Amino acid sequence: MYLCGFVIENMKIGTIDLGERPVVLAPMEDVTDISFRLMCKKFGADMVYTEFVSSDALIRHVNKTEQKLIVSEEERPVAIQIYGKDIHAMTQAARICEAAKPDILDINFGCPVKRVAGKGAGAGMLKNIPLMLEITRAVVEAVNIPVTVKTRLGWDHDSRIIVDLAEQLQDCGIAALSIHGRTRSQMYTGEADWTLIGKVKENPRMTIPVIGNGDITSADMCQTYFERYGVDGIMVGRGSIGRPWIFEEIKHYQKTGEVLPKYPFEWYLDILKKQVLQSVIRLDERRGILHIRRHLAATPIFKGIPDFKTVRIAMLRAESVVELFEILDSIPFRFAIK
Question: Do 165 and 137 contact (CB within 8 A), yes or no?
């Protein structure tokens, strides 16, 4: 059990000062595009991460991959995240990313999906620690910006190696470590285990910031985990999908110790509609609406509305902005929501 009373200092990654107990937006494929990052930043995210970038695709100059490197001044500090299993490709990709001028370069050793981990990249590196460390050292040496790592507890329950691995990664020269509290075998099932994240932070040999990740879905939970496990920062992932305002809720709780009062229902609808429009502008109407459906499906604002299933299906099947907005705008009146 971890007790309150940790000395709270500003968290720094290299020279980048993120303040006390920063809360950051996790890198998520098909989620953390530039418009979503900017929205989360607006609501108080202390740092944001791009979608992960394939080193192999980047060095082949695949246009769709290169587009992921575009960052804006308004979202800083921002990290670009790369993944791969080849040392040469990773160092080349790291230099290409550095030229895009992010504040931080992050290495993904945590993605559990089969098309990544199954090929030895992402969380697949947890089965080849010597190569993981070799890649990390090479990337750190290849660039002049801070390099960080995001990984998991281990490959499976019998190989939860994160406490020792964290030291090894630190010795490679990384500037911070983010840990998702699951093994690769768990994927995103079950509950995230933060006890091992706490043990990493408790290790007196660890001098770099430790960022915890996994299942943060409310402001009070975020505060509790800061106090219980002593982490330097907390990363919010799926809890932000369809809910970019979670960062405002967390920041309000950090400052006041109280839950942020609810806004009118239309306020939340307007945020979702802005996300729709930004997605359509960035892509096009068809692809933009397809992209935003994940946020519409995940948002908690429709939770608990009785007999909502038919409307939910229609909302997720809408093929035009006009059709989708008509459905969204009808919800408060149809269900008498204030």
Answer: no
What pLDDT score was predicted for residue 249? 98
Of the candidates 195, 193, 251, the residue with the CA atom closest to the CA atom of residue 222: 251
Q: Decide: 41 and 48 in contact? Cβ < 8 Å.
A: yes
Residue 2 has pLDDT above 80, yes or no: no
Can you tell me the distance from the alpha carbon of 42 to that of 64, in angstroms, rounded to the nearest whole number? 26
- Taking alpha carbons only, the member of 90, 70, 65, 102 closest to residue 142 is 90
With beta carbons less than 8 A apart as the criterion, state whether 110 and 180 touch.
Answer: yes
Q: What confidence tier does 251 reach under pLDDT thresholds 50, 70, 90?
A: very high
**Whether pLDDT at 289 is above 50:** yes
Written as six digits, the tokens of 258 are 């109280």
Residue linked to tokens 């307007």:
270
The residue type at 307: D
CA distances in angstroms from 193 to 159, 164, 180, 186, 202, listed in the order given? 14, 17, 8, 11, 15
In angstroms, the CA 277 to CA 247 distance is: 21
How many CB atoms are closer than 10 A to CB 325? 16
What residues are paired with 149 via a beta bridge? Answer: 107, 177
Which sequence positions are flagged as catalytic?
Answer: 111
Pairing of strands 16-20, 10-13: antiparallel
CB 36 within 8 A of CB 275: yes
3-state secondary structure of 12: strand
Using DSSP bridges, classify how beta strands 233-236 and 210-213 pair: parallel, antiparallel or unpaired.
parallel
Residue type, 203: N
The chain-wide mean pLDDT, for the chain, equals 94
Check if the beta carbon of residue 328 is closer than 8 Å to that of residue 322. Answer: no
Rounded Cα distance, 227 and 240, in Å: 21
